[in-house]
Amino acid sequence: MDAKSVFGPRVAYYVQARPDYPTAVLTCLRDEHTLTPTAVIADVGSGTGKLARLFLQHGNVVFGVEPNEEMRAASETYLRDFPRFTAVAGTAEATNLPAASVDVVTAGQAAHWFDLEGAQNEFCRILRPGGLVALVWNDRRDDDPLIQGFDHLVHTYRRPSAELRRANAAPTDIAALAGSQTVHYTFPHAQELDFAGLMARILSISFMPLPGEPQHEALLAGLRELFVAHEVNGRVHLPYNTELYVGRYG
Predict the structure, then answer these.
(1) Partners of 62 in the beta sheet?
(2) Residue 25: CB partners within 8 Å, gap ≥ 6?
(3) What are phi and psi for residue 60, nearest 5 degrees?
(4) d(CA 166, CA 88)
(5) Single pTM value for the model
(6) Which of 151, 199, 241, 242 has a beta carbon 3.0–4.6 Å from 187's, enabling a disulfide?
(7) What span, in angstroms and rounded, lies between the C-alpha atoms of 204 and 197?
(8) CB-based burial, 61-93: b 16+ in 10 Å, e otherwise
């Protein structure tokens, strides 16, 4: 099992409950790094299209490079109103895009799965000279009591860690993947979820037990207790820090 196949059964949970990305990401790239609406973007590991949507709304042409067939299909549905979006079967190491064809490479919640050397070589190949790389994550705020309880459930019920291995999760690897003179930004973000949304949110995590698997019902029982302890008017507040790493190639 690897990152290219494990997310297929979780597509519906991704669509329902994974957070989008704050407009501050786009504002930063536009104001600090001269991103224009005419830039062509390769969104690598594009999943269901949540990051791609931010750039499509800006007017950009976006190629959503995604190895998982179910994820690609979901992105085409989610982004069906944006004719500038094209889903492409490919990976960070082999995007199937032409050489020197894009101005920006982006990745949302995905770059830690890429093979560092293979992705670097591919980014160099598909980017035009001076091309921009922007890597984005929504990280749960670990100083929040609800998030602390959520993360406790994640660690309690996660599958064995050897089942999935992230290729380059270290900060030095992320900086290398983003390119030269990497700049790091942090923006506040949040979700408001009912119980169905909170359940979908935890089941979207790659190593959580799915329906029919051992420990699934125990996970949901613990999640229900957590929800009841923190809900206000039937919803809970999940705070994030959105981390943006920006660099250039060439």
Answers:
(1) 41, 85
(2) 54, 134, 136, 187, 242, 244
(3) -75, 150
(4) 23
(5) 0.91
(6) 242
(7) 10
(8) bbbbbbbbebbbebbeebbeebebbebbebbbb
